[in-house]
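Hey,

Quick one before I head out. I ran the complex with adenosine-5'-triphosphate overnight. Inputs first:
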Amino acid sequence: MLNLQQYNSKGNTMPQKHATVHHSEKPRKLKKIGVFTSGGDSPGMNAAIRAVTRTAITNGLQVIGIVGGYEGMIQGDFRELSWLDVSGILQTGGTILKTARSQEFRTKEGRKKACESLLKEEIDAVVVIGGDGSFTGALAFSEEYDIPFVGIPGTIDNDIFGTEYTIGYDSALNTVVQAVDKIKDTAVSHGRIFFIEVMGREAGLLALNSGIAVGAEVILIPESTNDQKVFEHFISKGYKRKKTSGIVIIAEGDEMGGALKIAEKAEKENPDLDIRVSILGHMQRGGSPTAKDRIAASKMGVAAVEALIDNRQNIMIGLKHEQVVHVPFSEAVKLNHAIDENLIKIQHILNS
Ligand code: ATP
């Protein structure tokens, strides 16, 4: 903890921070809140920006959009958002506030500049829409400065502890399923095996659920420990006996490697198999959000502003059984979202 005496643009002393609190005892008078998107974009972020903006305006607050994630906060790239500024964006992918990965915010000096920008603009509290990296940044900031942050989980990985859902996951899942259905048509026609790589550097939920939804023969994810065995079984007699075409879904962060590497190995060992590779890439992040993502983003956006009004801080808004929950940033970023073993069982019963 830094022993800093911070001053805002009017020369007033900024309160020193001594611990990460989730509920401030002192009633807070909010006038102006900031909102920004950070890390990888995901479909539904715009719906969340809209919900935050309109809930704030309904409660008499001014809303400032921070453009370009933490980098925009450091640079003071701010624009006021009105009710109409967020009309027509509910159904659009991407983020109207842009997003970025900021190295500077990882430094104390960067966070100091970000705090100065917020104070200069007289922003009283901030809503951050992003993944666990973005919440780690908010946590670091909250340990040094006393401007409250509330987070909304927005990532296609759905891997954040404390929430059953993150905005963008359902849209990405449907995008993968539509793409693989098309690839499957050609796989069957030619009798080929397609090795399809989907996003997920550390999380395999997108791969696992899309694999179940398309009837993939094998799904390889970072969380599983017996990928090698399952794969060898598939590629040897078990596979050849049953089918002439097939789909293998691979999360990009699988410990056996990406789709190219695994396909190369399989080809070497089985030259008679007709193997092709398809890496779905960034198409998974784009497109119009599904109804599920729009609804989740709307729920969480409203809840985030209500939490700030209710003196909450340093928490992420989550959903459990469709209901809003508050999860301290410290838990959301430290703990892992475990993979549902039942999904792995389902995959094995239906496709091995
Ligand atoms: P996604 O899950 O889509 O990758 P994310 O929010 O996890 O989203 P990151 O790139 O990990 O994306 O983090 C976003 C930004 O948060 C970083 O560019 C950086 O500015 C800030 N950040 C991440 N980790 C830290 C940290 N330890 N300290 C300070 N800031 C951080």
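The domain at 5-167+289-334 is CATH 3.40.50.450 (Rossmann fold).

Talk tomorrow,
K.
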